[in-house]
Amino acid sequence: MLVGVIACVALSFWQGERREQRLEEIRHIQENYDGPVRDVSQVLPSRQDRLAEEDEWTRVELHGQYDDRSLLARNRPLNQQAGFEVVVPFLLQDGTTMLISRGWVPTDSSGGAPESVPAPPAGEATVTVRLRPAQDGSGDDNPPETLLAIDPAVVDGLEQPYLGAYGVMESEQPPAAEPLQAMPRPSVSEGSHLSYQMQWLAFGVMVIAGGVYAARREAQGAREARLQREAAQAQEYVVVDKDQLKSGRLARPLPSQERRRKDRRDEAEEDALLESRR
C-alpha cells in the first residue's frame, strides 16, 4: 500500500509539472504571437544562437529576397489531410539567410509531392515572420528538395544561415501572385494534465482505502478463527454406548459433569445447613 501511494503521488506531481510547463508555453504564445514586431538582432544576436523558449513565436520583420528554390517539409498533416510545408530560404540584406515556412500545400492525388508549388514574390521583399526553434534533422535521410525536419544545418547551399531558428510567414510585401494556405495558429489548450493529476491522487486514495479494507478483513478473519478455536476447546462431549442407549441407559457422564453435579449437591447441603441454624 505504501509503495502504491508513493507511486501515485509521484505521478501526480509529474503531471502537475507537465501542466506548469504547458501553461508557460501558452503564456509565451499569448505574449508573442500577436506581440510587437522586433528586430531579429534583438532576438537572435548571432546566427549560431538557438531561439530561447520565451522568444518562440516572436514577430520579426526581414528585408531581402527569396531564393529561387522551394523545399517541401514532409509529414505535415493539416485538418486531417496529408501535405507539406513549403520552406524557402530568404536572403537578408546583411548577407545572412533564414529559412521561412511560407505555408502549406496538400499532397497530390497519389499521395506524393505536388508537381509544382506557388512561387514567392520575385525581387526585394519585406516579410513578417514568427520565429520558431530549428528542428533537429541531423539523422534524417532527405530526398532532393525535401525535408523531414526544418533544420537549416542540413540544407545545402545556404549563405550564413541562422542555425537556431526559422520563420513562419505572417505576411509579405509585395504579396505573392498565388498565396499558400497559411499555417494555423498554435493551440493554447492546457491538455489533460490537470485531470490526470487528479486521477493519480484519486488512485492513491483508492490504494489507501483498499489497504485499510484488506487489513480489516484480515483482522476479522483472525478474530473469527480465534473464536472458533475457543469454542472448540470449550465444547463438551458425552460418551454414549449404543447398547445402553437402546436400553434407555446413558453412559457414565464425563468427570466434568460429575464435578458440576457434586458442586450443586455441596451447594444444596450448605443451604440446608444454613437453614437449620436460623
Automatic annotation (TrEMBL):
Acidic residues: bias regions: 268-278
Record InterPro entries: Surf1/Shy1 (IPR002994), Surf1/Surf4 (IPR045214)
Pfam family, one: SURF1
Region feature Disordered, mapped onto this chain: 105-124, 248-278
Cellular localisation: Cell membrane; Membrane
Membrane topology per record: Multi-pass membrane protein
Keywords: Cell membrane, Membrane, Transmembrane, Transmembrane helix
Positions with biased composition (Basic and acidic residues): 257-267
Entry superkingdom: Bacteria
GO CC annotations, alphabetized: plasma membrane
PANTHER family per the UniProt record, alphabetical: SURFEIT LOCUS PROTEIN, SURFEIT LOCUS PROTEIN 1
Record family assignment: Belongs to the SURF1 family.
Name used for this protein in its record: SURF1-like protein
Organism: Sediminivirga luteola
Lineage: Bacteria, Bacillati, Actinomycetota, Actinomycetes, Micrococcales
